[in-house]
Amino acid sequence: MLTSAEWDIVALSLKVSLVAIAVTLPLAFALAWLLARRRFPGMVLLDALVHLPLVLPPVVTGYLLLLAFGPQGPVGSIAQRLLGIVFSFHWTGAALAAAVMALPLMVRAIRLSIDAVDTRLESAARTLGAGRWDVFRRITLPLAAPGVFAALVLGFARSIGEFGATITFASNIPGETRTLPLGIYTALQVPGAEGEVARLAIISIALSLAALVASEWLVRRGTDGKGRPVL
Amino acid sequence: MLTSAEWDIVALSLKVSLVAIAVTLPLAFALAWLLARRRFPGMVLLDALVHLPLVLPPVVTGYLLLLAFGPQGPVGSIAQRLLGIVFSFHWTGAALAAAVMALPLMVRAIRLSIDAVDTRLESAARTLGAGRWDVFRRITLPLAAPGVFAALVLGFARSIGEFGATITFASNIPGETRTLPLGIYTALQVPGAEGEVARLAIISIALSLAALVASEWLVRRGTDGKGRPVL
Amino acid sequence: APSQEGDKRAGPIVLAAASMHDALEDAADAWARQGHARPALSFAASSAAARQIEAGAPADLFVSADEEWMDELEGRDLLVEGSRAVLATNRLVLIAPAGSNAEIAPEPGFALAEALEGGRLAVAETESVPAGRYAKAALVDLGVWNEVADRLAPAENVRAALQLVARGAAPLGITYASDALAAPGVKVLGEFPAGSHPPIRYPLALVAAGGHPQAGAFRGFLLSPQGAAILARHGFGTAERD
Amino acid sequence: MAGAPRHRRQGQACPVNALAFDIDIAVARPGRRIEVRIASTDSLVALVGPSGMGKTSVLDAIAGLLGPACGHIEVGGKRLFDAAGQVDMPPERRGAGYVFQDSRLFPHLSVEQNLAFGTRYADGRAPFADPAECAELLGIGHLLHRRPRELSGGEIRRAAIARALLRAPRFLLLDEPTASLDDARRQDILRIVEQIRDRFALPILYVSHDRSEVDRLAGDVVEL
Amino acid sequence: MAGAPRHRRQGQACPVNALAFDIDIAVARPGRRIEVRIASTDSLVALVGPSGMGKTSVLDAIAGLLGPACGHIEVGGKRLFDAAGQVDMPPERRGAGYVFQDSRLFPHLSVEQNLAFGTRYADGRAPFADPAECAELLGIGHLLHRRPRELSGGEIRRAAIARALLRAPRFLLLDEPTASLDDARRQDILRIVEQIRDRFALPILYVSHDRSEVDRLAGDVVEL
Ligand SMILES: Nc1ncnc2c1ncn2[C@@H]1O[C@H](COP(=O)(O)OP(=O)(O)OP(=O)(O)O)[C@@H](O)[C@H]1O
Ligand SMILES: Nc1ncnc2c1ncn2[C@@H]1O[C@H](COP(=O)(O)OP(=O)(O)OP(=O)(O)O)[C@@H](O)[C@H]1O
Ligand code: MOO
Ligand SMILES: [Mg+2]
Ligand SMILES: [Mg+2]
């Protein structure tokens, strides 16, 4: 059905997207919690910073990533020296770009759910002996589960579709950074390659449909069907 | 501070984004309500369709828009004949592209909030004499306000940043469809225009920061500060 | 044009390859100074513009970076017959970051792989983007393609490839001479031999769906000696015109 | 378990169509089937029974929030539900003044807006009192601009009662209205209920665990 | 309004450090300042007063959920709060077994999980009963796998009581625990409270509007 080159693209896209949202999820939750529950100076600035990748054209985000995480960028050079992580022209760069683009969506979704958590339940948990961390883990987090599920769906879909930041920051290297959108873009440049474009687009759609169905299933298992979490 | 050409771009971007989210909001709410509250055949398909612009690379979305809403597309030709609306090379095309890209984000945010609405309150309103529509208007909608605010912020930010679908569908016409991201793209083509790129990027950031601050202010006025609506 | 929404957008609509930005903006200014309505210049990838024309968008003039897309449109009778011409030509150059001390020039069998020193060679995408296809052809012709095929950093377009070099992400890159000319942060190491790749031509043509009364005149202006002078200032050649 | 009238206060033989309540339904709940039969000419009927037996479920069914498996519901001579005759009036047209066991004040509205919520749907029926008067009577006049979250348990209860009364109901469903109220307040509310019973002859279904309340108010007592 | 003990049942003169409750605080609420003084050797003290006077606010302050403006709180010889001495123990270390007026069961947990929630924080204190036994005693043994949303009002109440008891509390705060319970259930619960009072000498603060309950249970009665 798929050619082996297409399989490679699919596998790479999945790897990049899954790593991106797995790494982003805890950060997104922490940011959402901070923004929902704390009042601190610079809060609006942090909020704006999180939203930045949504507002800027992806190509600019990619360019800024290049400046910061490129081999000569302040973060990139440190990451390479201390952690041995290279972003340029590497699938980790594609994952970083996808993560940055998915972050604002994930933060918003989780924040909405945290805002909806009844703080009286958290108080009740504390009188029962649960410290702040336990309250978070046993009450806040599970009650915010609908937001987490939404964040996963949005983040995954956004990662699967991310193009501009990836190609600008991590380039379009087959097997490394040529994810589905980059493959589609490459095909789109050529007259008459609509067939290839359609194949890859259908794969994208199928992937995200699978993710949607899986998430609806998870949500239904994880909630009573009305968005109220059971776990 | 800004040149007059830059002002034009800003004004156009604002017009395009505001029209896009204003038109999309009711549709997004209706879709979110359907997906949250109804079980119907084809529900997963509708859900997937709404998410499509998130999953597909924007360029592909733009291409599909071109096929459907272009002068010879099935929808585009009808819209032109019956309503006199032209999308090609026209700011309405940019607004349509922005709307389509913002839709999935807006639907998700609103859906999260509708899911969190306590249906027992809706029942109570009905025993008090409110029909389905009044319950919706007086209970469901205001209780879902946090999601609506989040939808507006996400939608506006996404619209302000939309690039790929716009340039593919509506082209890059100064004064008509050259929004901020397209302006940035155009400047990026000019050697040594990093200054111009930076200026336009900073305007984008400032706009979204203003939108964020405005929305936080609205949310604070519209809720008790904990995301619980007061209106 | 059926729906020019007239008034506000008085000039013809020109869809042009993004790499022609500076030259065409200058030309449009010059044209406007002669008392004409300034054309509306829309810059995008040639493929995006061509697809819009295919979809029936009422553009007046198309300037492509790529003869393939012009052929495609011509084959579909979307162009005004007889209006196709070569507007400009370009050359391919090897570039490095401004501070680089690399000394290597493109010639048959040149030591490109060694010169990369483990880094990657920034090019436009070699299968789809015109500049990348020319680069690949040249590298194949010079006999070094096999050594560098898996050492490429393919970018979305020529400008992005240029940025990769300017930002030091790639030690070397291949771009058009017109791009490298004005770009800060990069230097030209050498030009690719003209015979090493197919001639680089930027064709233009009137679009059938258009029909702006000034479109033909602006086309003529671009092809005139005055237009050629402007193109030359931006690093394009015009010699190869018929 | 069908509840039969235990004792009557104003019991006389009446024509069937003068019944305040004519209810005979079965409601299904997980692991339990709740059957109840109420046929009473008394306008105030008490519904009593151990916790979890189905009192609230019966009220929900009469209000139209829970579909009975079978049977019929007629209150004040009006057919609200009839499994046989395919009658199933939507909740908003039944005209119930329902004081929920869990109050269900609208969190996004002030107390005042909560009280006023049902007024516009009165269909020309006059409410028993004007809102300000009713709020004073229930001792929540000083709380009108607060939100439900800023109320004490008993204040919430009283606001819920006021909201149900002010909608100009055709009948009342009171699910432990005096729960979490002090004695003085409780007496106030019992007095109000008595007045409505006597002056307006409104059918009232009253759920309570307090024997003395039931004895004082009810004509018929139905035990689940 | 400072409440003074009204009558005592087992009242003897005691050294100060044997006080079950030594509380003297003022709590600010919008438009109202709630002042209360409780100094009692009786392990069960009833807190009574009209609706909205501040009973729940006092319990919240003792549980550590509401900061008093001044004063001190000592329960069972343990200083929980002292404005002067800068003591303000966090709620989770106070060891309260708090039955909230609004129950506050965790909606995402089954009844069983709700009951077990506090057990792990018992710090070696033994609970009064094992969970299954306690659930049976309160008549909710058959509901252990339900979610709170699928319970009746009285069932929710009983689950909330069980949850507070099973956390092996150092003291109990009971805010109208018998509200919305039938007489038989109410007697069960009063009996349990009596047993805990007598057998474990646990300090218990009991809010109720029911005079007979208060008379039966309480040593000291504090009126707000
Ligand atoms: N939403 C629900 N889903 C499933 N079961 C429910 C639900 N609500 C109540 N039940 C069950 O239905 C039965 C009847 O409940 P109902 O609330 O009608 O009792 P009740 O007589 O009002 O009790 P109480 O005096 O405790 O309020 C109980 O066994 C209860 O567990
Ligand atoms: N969250 C809150 N925000 C503001 N005011 C509140 C809040 N909770 C209670 N109040 C007010 O504080 C006062 C005391 O309330 P509290 O709940 O302590 O009373 P209570 O004695 O427990 O009453 P009840 O018997 O009705 O439960 C009341 O006037 C109430 O309106
Ligand atoms: O003009 Mo291009 O299509 O960016 O190389
Ligand atoms: Mg009940
Ligand atoms: Mg209280």
Question: SSE layout and pairings?
Answer:
The complex is a heteropentamer, with two copies of chain A (231 residues), one copy of chain C (242 residues) and two copies of chain D (224 residues).
Chain A: H1 4-37, H2 43-55, H3 58-69, H4 74-83, H5 91-116, H6 119-127, H7 132-143, H8 145-161, H9 164-170, H10 180-188, H11 194-222
Chain C: E1 13-17, H1 21-33, E2 40-44, H2 46-54, E3 61-63, H3 67-75, E4 85-90, E5 92-97, H4 112-116, E6 121-124, H5 130-141, H6 145-148, E7 152-155, H7 158-166, E8 172-176, H8 177-182, E9 186-191, E10 200-206, H9 215-223, H10 225-233
Parallel strand pairs in C: 1-2, 1-3, 6-7, 6-8
Antiparallel strand pairs in C: 3-10, 4-10, 5-8, 5-9
Chain D: E1 21-29, E2 32-40, E3 44-48, H1 55-63, E4 70-75, E5 78-82, E6 87-88, H2 91-94, E7 96-99, H3 111-116, H4 131-137, H5 153-166, E8 171-175, H6 183-200, E9 204-207, H7 211-217, E10 220-223
Parallel strand pairs in D: 3-9, 3-10, 7-8, 8-9
Antiparallel strand pairs in D: 1-2, 1-4, 4-5, 5-6
One adenosine-5'-triphosphate sits between chains E (29-30, 32, 49, 51-57, 101) and D (149-155, 180).
Averaged pLDDT of chain D:
88
H/I helix tally of chain A: 11
Q: What is Rg of chain A?
A: 20 Å
CATH architecture of chain A: Orthogonal Bundle
> Under the CATH scheme, which class of chain A?
Mainly Alpha
Sheet/helix structural class of chain D: alpha/beta
Give the number of DSSP strands of chain D. 10
Keywords (chains A, B): Cell inner membrane, Cell membrane, Membrane, Molybdenum, Transmembrane, Transmembrane helix, Transport
Protein name (chains A, B): Molybdenum transport system permease
Membrane topology (chains A, B): Multi-pass membrane protein
Family (chains A, B): Belongs to the binding-protein-dependent transport system permease family. CysTW subfamily.
Throw out a few tags for this protein.
heteropentamer, A: mainly alpha, MetI-like fold, 11 helices, globular, disordered C terminus, D: 224 residues, alpha/beta, five-stranded antiparallel β-sheet, disordered N terminus, binds adenosine-5'-triphosphate, binds molybdate ion, binds magnesium ion
Question: How would you characterize the overall build of this protein?
Answer:
- The complex is a heteropentamer, with 2 copies of chain A (231 residues), 1 copy of chain C (242 residues) and 2 copies of chain D (224 residues).
- Chain A has 231 residues and is mainly α.
- Chain A is built from 11 helices and no strands.
- Chain A has a single domain, classed as MetI-like (MetI-like fold, Orthogonal Bundle), CATH 1.10.3720.10.
- In chain A, helix 5 (91-116) packs antiparallel against helix 8 (145-161) and helix 6 packs antiparallel against helix 7.
- Chain C is built from 10 helices and 10 strands.
- Chain C has 242 residues and is of the alpha/beta class.
- Chain C has helices spanning 21-33, 46-54, 67-75, 112-116, 130-141, 145-148, 158-166, 177-182, 215-223, 225-233, and strands at residues 13-17, 40-44, 61-63, 85-90, 92-97, 121-124, 152-155, 172-176, 186-191, 200-206.
- Chain D has 224 residues and is α/β, with parallel strands linked by helices.
- In chain D, the strands form 2 sheets. Chain D has a 5-stranded antiparallel sheet with strand order 2-1-4-5-6, covered by helices on one side. In chain D, strands 7-8-9-3-10 form a 5-stranded parallel sheet, sandwiched between helices.
- Chains in contact: A-B, A-C, A-E, B-C, B-D, D-E.
- The structure holds adenosine-5'-triphosphate (2 copies), molybdate ion and magnesium ion (2 copies).
- One magnesium ion binds at residues 55-56, 101, 175 of chain D.
